Amino acid sequence: MESVDVRDDDVEDDQPVPAGMRLEHGKVVPHLTVAERDARGKAARREVPRESHAAFTPGSLRPDPVELLERQAVTRVSELVPLRYGRMLVSPFTFYRGGALIMASDLAGTPRSGLTTQVCGDAHLMNFGAFGSPERQLVFGINDFDETYPGPWEWDVKRLAASFAIAGRDNGYTSKERRKVLLTLLGAYRSAMRGFAGMTNLAVWYSHMDVESVVQQLRKTVDKSTVTRAEANIAKARSRDSIQAFAKLTQVVDGEPRIISDPPLIQPIEELFGEMDREQLMDMMRTLVRGYRRTLQSDRRHLLEDFRLAHVARKVVGVGSVGTRAWILLMLGRDERDPLFLQAKEAEASVLEQFVGAGRPKPHGARVVHGQHLMQESSDIFLGWQSAEGADGVKRDFYVRQLRDWKGSAIVEAMNPAAMAAYSRMCGWTIARAHARSGDRIAIAAYLGARDVFDQAIAEFSETYADQNERDYDALVQAEKAGRITAHRGL
């Protein structure tokens, strides 16, 4: 892999900005007063009524969902694509997790408020969770930004709400129970946004949700068994770090630690490129790491310099990401008891880009890092990016972060309706905070208003879209039966 020159990840910040103006997602816009921002939101509400968001009617020209997935497969590792299909075919819920492009295509035809924020782009409920902050606190937030891009804030809300409707169906909830969960989520988003609208800029920026406070709240709202499961899950998250990964993923070979082969899920680099000399392969990866280092904050770059690259392997991750190139890098510090696992994950164009319009050119790894810094209160200290040319001569973008740093996810299938409602409240606050940091929180709050008009509309949309998701899932099932796609299950 040949390194490509690093560029600053905030390339739009070099634009000249006249007095009284500011930059907003690469565009020069005026500084508005609170009253003007409030009026902006109310004007958007008149232009696009909140009730209009309830509608979802797929037209006759709606793209074939299987064809959209096949288009994505073209740029992915071909032998891993059947694994992606296999994971999506587990249930309508796992299908939804892998179908961000399908929903982005659908959302493009729905009403838009005209208010732009940095959006996650794939804000389903499994892309939230616990992770360690640089201050070594366990915090709750969004943890996947592969599709992040400036876009309509309501697209994140719709994708998140629909994921709760689909997960509720997967868990066997009644329609009444699902409705309660949805209205809890949406009420939390609206209430949080209205709260953020009244806060100072710095207060919004510093706001966060620590997990210990979450557990205290759970004790007041859910049963004891749910709290016990949550506490056990938190304890497990605290154990998930590079030392735990080192014990699980490595073995000693000829006196050196090496990542264990477990194909197709984990494959050391020398297995994938057997015709090339191992040291030549490692030299290419060292070049990639050297370029990535330059995108880090200076003190973190200094820290990373104390680690050496020991081994590299390809690892299959997630559902929708399966088939993209994801590498795990074993780094060693003062000795072999001081490991650091990094993950270099391929970043392709956001699924939103073709529907909201491309901005100024930026490497996709930089796009992910930029979006994560905007939306997440405490980003990984080793979060950075690099572009590199592979052995096949194709230049690809990557972002890099720690493989495990106290990461924990909700056990959705074990949730009863009360527990899911409590979890939805956390997600609603979190996505509102992300939007408040990157967009006009005062205008969005004015658009939402004090009543639950928007909440009811999105709850209606979510159930309608859950119906569509089931039809799309069935289309993938039929595609496998017809031999159109090949799926590998159980991996």
The number of domains? 2
The whole-number mean of residue pLDDT values reads 91
Structural class, from helix and strand content? Answer: alpha+beta
Largest sheet: 7 strands, antiparallel
Proportion of residues in extended strands: 15-25%
Question: From the alpha-carbon coordinates, what is the Rg to the nearest angstrom?
Answer: 22 Å
Low-confidence stretches: 1-11
Characterise this structure:
- This protein has 491 residues and is an alpha+beta fold.
- The chain folds into two domains: 48-129 and 149-237 and 414-481, no CATH class; 242-402, no CATH class.
- It contains 19 helices and 15 strands.
- A seven-stranded antiparallel beta sheet has the order 1-14-15-13-12-11-10, with helices on both faces. Strands 2-3 form a two-stranded antiparallel sheet.
- A hairpin with a 2-residue loop joins strand 8 (250-253) and strand 9 (256-259).
- The longest helix has 29 residues, at 453-481.
Give the gist of this structure.
Helix content is 47%, strand content 15%. The protein contains 19 helices and 15 strands.
Topology:
Blueprint: E1 2-3, E2 21-24, E3 27-30, H1 34-47, H2 65-73, H3 81-88, H4 92-98, H5 100-107, E4 116-119, E5 128-132, E6 138-142, E7 149-152, H6 153-170, H7 175-197, H8 201-206, H9 211-221, H10 224-239, H11 242-249, E8 250-253, E9 256-259, E10 266-268, H12 269-272, H13 278-293, H14 298-305, E11 308-315, E12 326-332, E13 339-346, H15 353-356, H16 364-375, E14 384-389, E15 395-402, H17 417-438, H18 441-448, H19 453-481
Antiparallel strand pairs: 1-14, 2-3, 4-7, 5-6, 8-9, 10-11, 11-12, 12-13, 13-15, 14-15
Helix pairs in contact: 1-18, 3-4, 4-6, 6-7, 6-17, 6-19, 7-17, 7-18, 7-19, 9-10
